[in-house]
């Protein structure tokens, strides 16, 4: 998988973009496991992606739901046993 960020909201701690192989759109959040820092990638619709920046509030709500692990069914890659915590 090759994730290509199109927009980054540093202050809100999320990015959106497109995965190059599948063409699917994503929202990513930073995560830390104590051993390594990484990103988790969650699938979003093209409409959500293309609506940026006019829908930054909606994207922020989704990012917060991802941090609370309420959107795990949208993960591109399922986490391992030592899953990190959103930062």
Kindly list the characteristics that best describe this protein.
87 residues; alpha+beta; 2 helices; 5 strands; 20% helix; globular
Fold topology:
Blueprint: E1 3-9, E2 14-19, E3 25-32, E4 37-44, H1 46-50, H2 56-67, E5 85-86
Antiparallel strand pairs: 1-2, 2-3, 3-4, 3-5
Written overview of the protein:
The structure is a single chain. The protein is of the alpha+beta class. It has two helices and five strands. The protein has one domain. Strands 1, 2, 3, 4 and 5 form a five-stranded antiparallel β-sheet that branches. A hairpin with a 4-residue loop joins β3 and β4. The model has no long low-confidence stretch (mean pLDDT 96).
- Helical residues, percent: 10-25%
Beta-sheet strand percentage?
A: 35-45%
Number of domain units: 1
- Unreliable residue runs: none
**Order of helical and strand elements:** EEEEHHE
The largest sheet, given as strand count, sense and whether it forms a barrel, is: 5 strands, antiparallel
Distance N terminus to C terminus?
23 Å
Number of beta-strand segments: 5
Question: Can you count the helices?
Answer: 2
Rg (CA only)? 12 Å
**Can you tell me the overall shape?**
globular
Task: Look at the helices and sheets and give the structural class.
Answer: alpha+beta
Mean pLDDT: 96
């Amino acid at each position: 998988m090759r994730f290509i960020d199109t927009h980054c909201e540093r202050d809100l701690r999320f990015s959106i973009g497109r995965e190059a192989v599948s063409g699917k759109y994503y929202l990513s959040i930073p995560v830390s496991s104590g051993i390594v820092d990484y990103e988790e990638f969650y699938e979003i619709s093209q409409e959500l992606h293309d609506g940026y920046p006019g829908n930054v509030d909606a994207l922020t709500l989704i990012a917060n739901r991802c941090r609370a692990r309420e959107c795990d069914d949208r993960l591109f890659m399922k986490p391992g046993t030592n899953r990190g915590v959103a930062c």
